[in-house]
Amino acid sequence: MDITVDRQRQGPARRHRRVPWSPGAWGEALYLAGGIPIQAVTALILVGLISVTQGATGPRTAFWVLILWLLGAAVIFLLTPTLTRINRHRLRTTAGVEIPPQRKWRGLLTVPGVTAVVRSQSTWRQLCYHVLLAPMLAAAAIVAVGLWPGSIVCTLASAVMLAHHRDGGPYTTGQPAHAGLYVGLMFAGIAGLFIAPWLTSGVRALDTRAARALLGPSRADELEHRVEQLTETRAGVVDAADAERRRLERDLHDGTQQRLVSLAINLGMARAQAESAEDAKQAIAEAHEEAKAALAELRDLIRGLHPAVLEDRGLDAALSGIAARMPIPVRLTVDLPRRPAPVIEAVAYFVVSEGLANIVKHSQATEAAIFVQRAGDRLHVIVTDDGVGGADPVHGTGLAGLARRAASVDGTFDIDSPHGGPTLLTVDLPCNR
Which of 54, 146, 340, 413 is the most exposed place for a label (fewest CB within 10 A)? Predict the structure, then answer.
C-alpha cells in the first residue's frame, strides 16, 4: 500500500502581456479568425436574400419574394440549434469557455412541439445572437484581425519607401516622394500593431459575454433544471436511506441477533443441563465465543455507519484502514492539502468502501488502486481494479446507491467497466471548505 500526500504550491499568476509578440495575443487573434465563418452564416443568408430580391416588382413577384424570405427565415430558424452547438464547441476548444447546453428542440413535426419552441425564451435569445450580434461580432473580428497584417504591411511599406526616398528614388513615376507621409504611415502602422492586441482582446471579451448570455440556458431555465435535479436527488436520498435502513435491519436480524440468541441458548443449557464442571465450562466457552463474534459484528456495523477514525484523523487515515483490511493489495494515493467538509469526507469514504467491497465480491481482481485528490473546489475520487469488469449500476451491486449518495451533495458519479476490465469508478464532489 502506497500513501502519499503532496501539497501543491501555486505561484502568483503571470499577467497577460498584450503586446504584438505575445503568444496569448496571437492566440486570441487566431480565436477570432476561427469564429468569423460560423458567425457570418446568417449574415450571408440575409445578404443573399437581399441580392436575389432586390429590384423585384409586381404582385406575383412580391408573392414569390415573400415566399423566398419565409424560406430563408425557416432555414435560419432550423440552423439555430446547429449554430449554437458549433459556437459552444468553438468557445470550449479555443477559449476554454464552457457554456451549459440548452434543451434540445423536440417535436418539431407536431404543432405543440413547434409552439413550445417558438414560445421558448431560449429560442429567441439564440436567434438574437445568430441574427443580430454574430454578424456584428464577425465584422468586428474582421477589423481586429485585419489590423494585424494591415499594420505590418503599412509599417514595412512605409519603411521601404522612406529608405527609397532617402536614396533619391521617386514614390511613383513622375511624382516626388513625401518623406513626412512615409514617416506618418510608418508610425501609424507601429501604433496599429500595439492597438491590435487590445482591440482583439476586447472583441473576444464581447464575443464571450454575448455567448454566455444568449447561447447558454437562461436564469429561469437554470432554476427549473436545478429544481428538477434537487427533486430527483431528494427522491434518491430517501431511497438510499430506506435501503440503508433495510440493510441494517437485515444485518442485525441475520447476524448479531442470531448470535445473541445462540448465546442465550448456550447459557440456558449450561444453567439447566450441566451435570459437571466440565460441561458448564464447555457451554460457557461456547457462549464466550458467540459473545465475541457478536461484538465483532457490532463493531463492523458501527464502523459502517460512521467510523470514528474518519472524524478524528481525516479521510486519508480512514481510507488507509479500509485498504489494510482488504484481502487483495490496494495502492492508495491521497493528495489533500486540507480537509474537506465532514459530509464530503463521509461521502468519499463510503464511495471507496462500497467500491472496494464490490471489487472483492464481483470483480475477481488481484489488485486495486485508490486515488483521492483535491483540485481547487473539487474533490476527485477514483477507484480502479484489474478485474473482469462488467459492472453496471442498472444491475445493482450497490453502484446505484453510490450514484445517489454522490448526487445528494451535488457530486457526479461515473463508471467505466467494459467486459474484460479494468473497472474505473470516478466520483467528483464539491469541496468549497
Answer: 54
